[in-house]
Design goal:
Elements (H helix, E strand, L loop, with lengths): L3 H9 L3 E2 L4 E5 L4 E7 L7 E9 L5 E8 L4 E13 L19 E10 L9 E4 H4 L9 H14 L5 E5 L4
Length: 166
């Protein structure tokens, strides 16, 4: 476990996908996983995971986690379910506190790292986080959401997003 400040630093740190060059991402695959690094901070490695599950209300999850500690830093869930903790500690950010005990049922939300809680225990609705892609109605939206998330976690690598024809 680490501090909220370190989690924020890790999020802002520029990252490249191991293997270099342009990375192809095929949105028709159920799960894609990429290792990320920052050449100036070699002690940190990250995992970038894209999961789509059309069986559960087209739920899509993007997950970035620091690889050595396996602590999730951020996750974007479209139309997923999640229940926030019922208790606060001193590290819960102010913008998150109104969602104490909130249950997200089939609602898009951002799950964030908060010091002192289990992995990605806290979530806020997209409106609190200002994530630009609110709904996934087609594969083009999925590609835009993926690009927005890559920008949020500061991926410097070029992404070639292959949109499946449904």
């Amino acid at each position: 476990m680490f501090s909220n400040e370190l989690a924020e630093k890790l999020m802002k740190m520029p990252k490249t996908i191991v293997g270099g060059g342009t990375t192809n991402i095929n949105l028709s695959e159920e799960k894609s996983r990429f290792k990320l690094i920052n050449h100036d901070e070699p002690e940190y490695e990250f995992l970038f995971e894209i999961t789509s599950n059309r069986k559960i209300s087209f739920k899509i999850t993007f997950h970035n986690q620091e690889n050595n500690t396996k602590e999730g830093l951020i996750r974007i869930d479209y139309k997923g379910g999640h229940k926030n903790p019922e208790t606060l500690n001193d590290y819960v950010p102010e913008f998150v506190k109104p969602y104490l005990g909130h249950y997200f049922q089939n609602e898009s939300h951002v799950r964030i790292y908060v010091e002192g809680y289990k992995d990605l225990a806290w979530a806020v609705p997209f409106s609190e986080f200002n994530f630009p892609i609110n709904n996934i109605d087609n594969m083009e939206d999925f590609g835009q959401a993926l690009r927005a998330f890559a920008k949020e976690i500061n991926i410097a690598s070029l992404l070639n997003i292959q949109i499946a024809i449904l």
